[in-house]
Amino acid sequence: MRFHDPDSLLTSLKGQKVFVKDLNVFFKDWPSKLNIHLDDLRVVVDAWLESTMAESPLLRALKAADFGLFGATWWPEADWERLKVVTLFATWLFCWDDQIDSDDGSLWDDFGGSQVVRDQTLSYVRSCLDISDSQSHDKPPSRIIGGFQTIGEAIRKGYTVGKLNLAVPEQRERFMKEFTTFVKMSQCEQSIRLSGKVPSIDEFWQYRLGTSAVYTCLAINEFSWGDMHLPPGIMEDENMKALWNRTNVIISTGDAQSAVDQAIGFLEESVLEFEETIRRLQEDPIASDAVSKRQLHSFIKGCEFYCSGNLAWSLSTGRYGINCEDMSRGVFVEL
Fold first, then answer.
1. CA–CA gap between residue 289 and residue 282 (Å, rounded)
2. pTM exceeds cut of 0.90
């Protein structure tokens, strides 16, 4: 049966139970742990949410999502100061996106208003990173957009910026490139949703890999490790780009009956491709010196943490309502 509008598709799925087998088996050889600062991080995140989202009807749901746990699983080896920055950045991304992509968000059905916010956000983030044409810092046009200020200051101080006319992007430019893609894909997703049509598989993956914000978070992977600065030759290598893509696909697929089974098969295939990509990267002579080899190993480890950590968080967060502490026997999920 083919559905031509989202409402009919959702109605047909509502109440169905699907079985999701244990996904941890795909990551059994990958590192997975919690940052030792989890409890303190939860306090910081809740305080930030109460300050930034105080007047939003989304506040309760955002607090229930437990973004402290998200940060502790994605960046388990980050030191306290950098852990706060990267976790608050991820939290900010969720808040920013939910105002547009959540049906309780203020911009859910307001495409014109969303476009204004998207343009304002890109301008403000560029300003915070000191990569805009203007030397002055823009005043944040809203409390949510302004939530990036301290995050941007930390990234600006910790990340390199390229010289004028540099063809190969440096850390801040790479971050801005991926964040811009995230914002543009938000526009694409909302446009398709408001059109009332069901996107094709190709259309879905085109915007999903952008709106997932995984690429944007990968752009701060180096920051989370402290002193990491991989040479542009490594970061722009085709195998590194493939690693980013596989990491994104795994995380975007592994959020937990035929569609689920196909997704799991796709996830398994992506894990195998991820591991093959790692092998090629480690054999590639681009990382010729000891420092680059050590940092490349840590960057890859960070990608593995993203994948295993995202699964752990998605099973327990109140955002998805699965509430599964042990997946060894699989789990039934009601749609």
1. 12
2. no
Structure-block tokens of residue 276: 């093959």
What residues contact 228, with CB distance under 8 A and at least 6 apart? 221, 222, 295, 298, 299
Tens-binned pLDDT, residue by residue, of the chain (335 aa): 344 454 554 454 455 566 677 888 888 899 999 999 999 999 999 999 999 999 899 999 999 999 999 999 999 999 999 999 999 999 999 999 999 999 899 999 999 999 999 999 999 999 999 987 655 556 889 999 999 999 999 999 999 887 544 555 789 999 999 999 999 999 999 999 898 887 777 888 888 899 999 999 999 999 999 989 999 889 999 999 999 999 998 888 754 444 455 567 778 888 999 999 999 998 888 888 889 999 999 999 999 999 999 988 988 888 877 777 777 777 666 65
Angle at 102 between CA 18 and CA 325, to 5 degrees: 40
Beta bridge partners of 18: 333
Distance CA 240, CA 132 (A): 27
CA 305 – CA 98 distance, rounded (Å):
25
Q: Which two tokens stand for residue 87?
A: 């976790």
Three-state SS letters, the chain: CCCCCHHHHHHHHCCCEEEECCHHHHHCCCCCCCCCCHHHHHHHHHHHHHHHCCCCCCHHHHHHCCHHHHHHHHCCCCCHHHHHHHHHHHHHHHHHHHHHHCCCCCCCCCHHHHHHHHHHHHHHHHHHHCCCCCCCCCCCCCHHHHCCHHHHHHHHHHCCCCCCCCCCCCHHHHHHHHHHHHHHHHHHHHHHHHHCCCCCHHHHHHHHHHHCCHHHHHCCHHHHCCCCCCCHHHHCCHHHHHHHHHHHHHHHHCCCCHHHHHHHHHHHHHHHHHHHHHHHHHHCCCCCCHHHHHHHHHHHHHHHHHHHHHHHHHHHCCCCCCCCCCCCCCEEEEC
- Could you tell me if residue 2 is left (phi over 0), alpha (psi between -120 and 50 degrees) or otherwise beta? beta
